[in-house]
Model the fold of this input.
Amino acid sequence: MNYRGIGLRYLDDDFKLLSFVLGCYFYDAPAHSAAHFGAFVDDKLQEYNLQLDSSKFVVCDNEMRMLAACRDQCTRVSCSDQYLNKQLQHAFELNEIHTNKSTIENVNCETAQNIFLQVKKIVTNVRRSHRQQELSMKLQIYSETRFNGAMTMLDIFRKMFYELPLVLTNTKSMDNYNLIVKKSLDDICCFLQPFEEVIEALSEDHQPTLHRVTRRRKTIWLITTEHRLATILHPKLRNFESCYDEKENSIPALKLPYDKCQLNISSSFSSLLHSN
Done:
C-alpha cells in the first residue's frame, strides 16, 4: 500500500511561513508514472478548490518522475536537502556515478565505504539480536530516506564504540568491529557535520529557507531564478555578502517580472481608455 502526503506553505506579508498539511492520502492511481501522479495531485487539490499554475511553486525531490510530473503545471523548485542526501548516499553506496548520460566516474571513497559497510552490518545484527538494550544509547539503522541517515548511524555508533564489545564478544560481528579504525570513523563524522548543519538549516518549519541555498553552498547545486529572487528580496541578504557574484545575476531576474508586470498594467490601462 502506498500513501502520498500533500502540504501547503504560504508566506505572509511579515515574511512568516505558514505550513498546513492537507492530508496523507492512499495512492490509488493505476500506475506510478508522472502522468498518473500529476493527476492524483490535481484531484486532491480540487477537493480544496485549489489548482496548480505558473504562479504556484512546488518543492519536490529531483527524481525523473517528479521532474516530469511538475514540468508544465507549476514552477518547480528542487529540494536541496534531497539533493544533498543523494550525494551522500552515492558516496557511501556506489562505486561509480553517472555525471551525465555519457560519462561515468569512480566514486573513490573506498575507506569511508568500508567503514560504513562494517558499521551497517554491526548495527543491523545488534538490533536483530535484541542486545542493544544492554547499551546506554540506541543504535540507529541506516535509512536511505532519512536525510543524512549515514551521519545518524555513524555518529551514534562512534559514541557507543567502546561499549559495543560487551554485546559483540563471541559473535561474528566482532570481526567487523575489529576492522574499524576509530580515528577514521571520527574523521568521517567530522566531515559529515557541515552537511548535517546545512540539512537542518534548510529543514526549517517556521521560516522560509529558499534564500539560504544561495549563500550556504552555491557550488553544490544549480542556483535557479527562484533562489536568486528569494535572496535579493530578503531584507538581510539583498547585498549578497557571501556570494556577491550572484547579485549581478539576480538583478535581471528581479527586473524581468517587474517589467512584465508594468507591461500588463500599461496594456490594461490602454484597453480601458480605448473602451471609453
